[in-house]
Amino acid sequence: MRNLRFVCLFAVLSAICAAYADETVTEEQLSSIEEDVIDQSAASALDSLSDNSFSAEEPGQSGLDEASQARLKKLLGGNLDKNAGEIAALTENLSTEERELVFDSAKVFQGKAIGLNWAGFGAGSFYEHDILGGVIGVVADTIAISSVVCGCGAGVVTLFVVIIASIGDDQETINRYVGITCGLLFGGAGLWLANKIFGSIRPVFYTKERNAKLREVLGLSENTELALVPVIDPVEKNYGIVASLRF
Known about the structure:
The chain has 247 residues and is mostly helical. The protein folds into three domains: 2-52, no CATH class; 66-106, no CATH class; 110-217. Helices cover 73% and strands 7% of the residues. The protein has helices at 2-22, 27-52, 66-76, 80-91, 96-106, 110-119, 123-127, 131-168, 171-217, and strands at 225-233, 238-246. A two-stranded antiparallel ribbon has the order 1-2. α3 (66-76) packs antiparallel against α4 (80-91).
């Protein structure tokens, strides 16, 4: 619609300028010019809509039946190296636009993965189908939380020990229980923090690697880049543009 408005405006201005070149434009002439341009633009727009309304594909159509779509979704959520052949077979007859839609629906986002990893138990890694990273997250968080809980329990016991031992002035017993409590608390907290740092770094590399592998399996090239470079030669008075297409 924006392009249509520009075309209408350009046509009106062109007609006015042409009229001014011959004689002064009257209000009746200007009104007639505008009506003619609007009628032509409306007719062109209706023709365009008529041509495109029946040829456009419904959004979300992938060219696969329901069973194939379900199978493809399951394969994309698994090991891409293992499932590459079957994924390629299912998508080989799809157009580039349809395969781009498949890629957009299956690609993973590192920001979401990092956020879920901070939520705990390797959720972000499992979201991007990183089984190893997810298992590490589960094990590390389980040990860390267990250590903190045990440390809190040991702290309660230590409190009673300190009270009782202080009566007999048994400093060695007090130090032993305090050391156990602090070791569990600080050890668990340190492991938890280390796991969060790991969960923030790993998705940065894994996400890029998986998405690149997904594009390769779907037979999609990297994003195409078009660069336009102006060429100016004031001596020879030559001017032009060099187009560089990278894909």
